[in-house]
Amino acid sequence: MYDPKPENKFTFGLWTVGNTGRDPFGEPVRHQLTPVEIVHLLAEVGAWGVNFHDNDLVPITATAAERDQIVRDFKQALADTGIVVPMATTNLFSDPAFRDGAFTSNDAQVRAYALQKTMNAIDLGVELGAKIYVFWGGREGTETDAGKDPVTAIKRSREAMNFLCEYVLDQGYDLKFALEAKPNEPRGDIYNATTGNMLAFIETLDHPDMVGVNPEVAHEHMAGLNFTHHVAQAMEAGKLFHIDLNDQAFGRYDQDFRFGSVNLKSAFFLVRLLEDNGYDASRHFDAHAYRTADYDDVKAFARGCMRTYLILKEKVARFNADVEIQELLAHIHADDGSMDGFQGGYSPEKAAALRNYAFDRPALGRRGQPYERLDQLVVELLLGVR
Q: Where are the domains of the chain?
């Protein structure tokens, strides 16, 4: 019952299961799989889709002929397996040209090259079926604020997004953008560090309807934030276009662990938010297997991400059907209707009535809520004893 199905819309990036285990302190421990091999691996474990950065698929040094052959082979692998491409993105952080940023670089040639590279990558993503295009500004930041003006950086970011929105419209593409926030790493500080920053930034664009967010568990947890709350804010604003699922110990470097492997209760509340609110876009696992893994264990990692999500989805259904839990929630949210006249929008009459209402402040302060009992029931549910 925990086997993935296409309707779950589980996806992985070429860079996730294809990660070779290299880190800042060690060389690769797994051989590099080709994009075609990765597609077949994902089909074997039951994934629905594959996502990619432009250079995950086509090396940055590839000739036009090499590019065309790689794309042909990739399309054939997609056709052979039934794997789809829901999302694509651009690598604007690995090449030395982007050592000081892409869209926010102080070098005008770098900013122009970043736009050119992104337009080419958008073309490739659309060619392969992508409907969402993600932007993660991994180098858009500073180590010292002496070198960049943050106001100028915001303006440059806006100019780039406006330019690329117009490009998509001009080409007639059916494509939306999703902006991904991260507080730091690889830069000391990255601009637009949280999902809330991104949501505010989007409203300043020329085409805010085309742009949403792609929040990631690890990125918000790095900053010690409640990821579920940030996803809820994006969802309530109609801006949750895509989501990156993984796991992360609070306050650490970007760990990108298997989904649900660290903060199981947080993962449960996230799945509950998505499932109870009818989220219907990709559930993308932007995570990496441990450096200790061989490719058999990488497959176990990928299956584990999907299996944990489906187990937690079942736990959500049990939560919603649990009589004791639902009775507690009904008690917590009970409303006798006495405040109905003060709810909703403002009116002078409502304000006057509210000013004249006599509240029993000491009585309000004596009211408790059974949150300890409720939370324990959630823990017991997750531990499998309910």
A: 6-320, 323-382
Q: Which residues contact 22 (CB under 8 A, 6 or more apart)?
A: 28, 29
The CATH T-level fold of domain 6-320 is: TIM Barrel (3.20.20)
In angstroms, the CA 4 to CA 307 distance is 7
Q: Which of 53, 221, 230, 242 is catalytic?
A: 53
236 φ/ψ sector (left φ>0, alpha ψ -120 to 50, else beta):
alpha
What would the pLDDT profile of 128-168 be if each residue is shown by its tens digit? 999 999 999 999 999 999 999 999 999 999 999 999 999 99
Query: 53 catalytic, yes or no?
Result: yes
296 labelled catalytic = no
Give the Å distances, CA to CA, from 119 to 122, 140, 369. 5, 18, 54
**C-alpha span between 28 and 363 (Å, rounded):** 64
Amino acid occupying residue 369 = Q
Residues in the chain: 386
Q: Give bridge partners of residue 285 from the DSSP assignment.
A: 12, 245
Q: Which of 3, 23, 56, 206 is catalytic?
A: 56
- ∠ CA 105-197-313, nearest 5°, is 120
DSSP reduced 3-state for 349: helix
pTM: 0.97
